[in-house]
């Protein structure tokens, strides 16, 4: 059985549980799988769910598997909307693919990078991970845009997401590239950053496209 189909079934059951449903029929009707009964059997055989006449319920194994999947899916959605500013209706389709690409380790990095967000762009809760437990409250994202950086702060450029790809080589020629250490000297009327011994002025528009990890 295709892992992706099993994942989808686990995610569906999680979402139904969130809405307070655990009826087997509800699950059958909500599933988009052509062979929903075959899927249910696989879930049972693999020890992810138990069923009674009326209900379908997670085992502990199934719940933790589904939790991890949902976490990856919703973090991927956040990543797309917050960082890549993709429009909402395109997000879900891409996030669906992403969730199968994000490894468990990468998931915690993405979560930390985003500041341990509590909800996805649709307002659904993101299951907490190990990385979130260290924080009682939501913290500032580790990586921020240059446009939100404080004057005087120093940091390393993590990545650049240019609206126009041609900008990247121009920025690179100025020494503005992933890995460069910069200090923000001023914000108005344009952003002035220091790289090594050089200072470079950057339009506010472009400052939004440069992501920086603050040095402490
Ligand atoms: Zn969502
Ligand atoms: Zn976290």
If you had to describe this structure to a student in words, what would you say it looks like?
- The protein has helices at residues 3-18, 24-30, 36-45, 60-83, 88-98, 104-113, 130-133, 166-173, 204-207, and strands spanning 49-51, 56-58, 143-145, 154-160, 181-186, 191-195, 198-202, 210-214.
- A six-stranded antiparallel beta sheet has the order 3-8-4-5-6-7. A two-stranded antiparallel ribbon has the order 1-2.
- The chain is elongated, with a radius of gyration of 22 Å.
- The N and C termini lie far apart (48 Å).
- β6 (191-195) and β7 form a beta hairpin.
- The chain is 44% helix and 17% strand.
- One zinc ion binds at residues 111-112, 116, 129, 131-132.
CATH topology of the largest domain: SH3 type barrels
Bound molecules: zinc ion
Molecular shape? elongated
Q: In percent, how much strand structure appears in the residues? A: 15-25%
Helix and strand succession? HHHEEHHHHEEHEEEHE
Largest sheet: 6 strands, antiparallel
Average predicted local confidence, pLDDT: 86
Gyration radius over CA: 22 Å
| Alpha plus pi helix count | 9
- Within CATH, the superfamily of the largest domain carries the name Ferrous iron transport protein A (FeoA)
- Which range best describes the helical content: under 10%, 10-25%, 25-40%, 40-55%, 55-70% or over 70%? 40-55%
Question: What structural class is derived from the secondary structure elements?
Answer: alpha+beta
Q: CATH first level of the largest domain: which class?
A: Mainly Beta
Question: How many domains make up the coordinates?
Answer: 3
The unreliable regions are none
CATH architectural category of the largest domain? Roll
């Amino acid at each position: 059985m295709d892992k992706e189909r099993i994942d989808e079934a686990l995610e569906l059951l999680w979402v139904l549980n969130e809405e307070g449903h655990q009826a087997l029929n509800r699950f059958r009707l909500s599933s988009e799988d052509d062979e929903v009964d075959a899927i249910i059997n696989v879930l049972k055989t693999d020890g992810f769910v138990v069923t009674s006449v009326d209900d379908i319920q997670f085992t502990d194994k199934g719940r933790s598997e589904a939790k991890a999947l949902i976490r990856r899916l919703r973090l991927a959605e956040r990543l797309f909307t917050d960082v890549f500013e993709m429009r909402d209706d395109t997000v879900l389709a891409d996030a669906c693919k992403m969730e199968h690409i994000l490894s468990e380790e990468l998931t915690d990095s993405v979560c930390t990078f985003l500041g341990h967000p509590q909800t996805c762009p649709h307002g659904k809760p993101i299951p907490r991970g190990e990385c979130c437990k260290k924080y009682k409250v939501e913290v500032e994202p580790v990586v921020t845009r240059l446009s939100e950086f404080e004057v005087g702060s120093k940091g390393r450029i993590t990545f650049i997401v240019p609206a126009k790809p041609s900008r990247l080589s121009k920025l690179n020629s100025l020494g503005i590239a992933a890995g460069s250490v910069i200090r923000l000297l001023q914000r108005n009327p344009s952003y002035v950053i220091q790289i090594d011994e050089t200072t470079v002025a950057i339009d506010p528009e472009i400052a939004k496209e440069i992501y920086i990890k603050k040095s402490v």
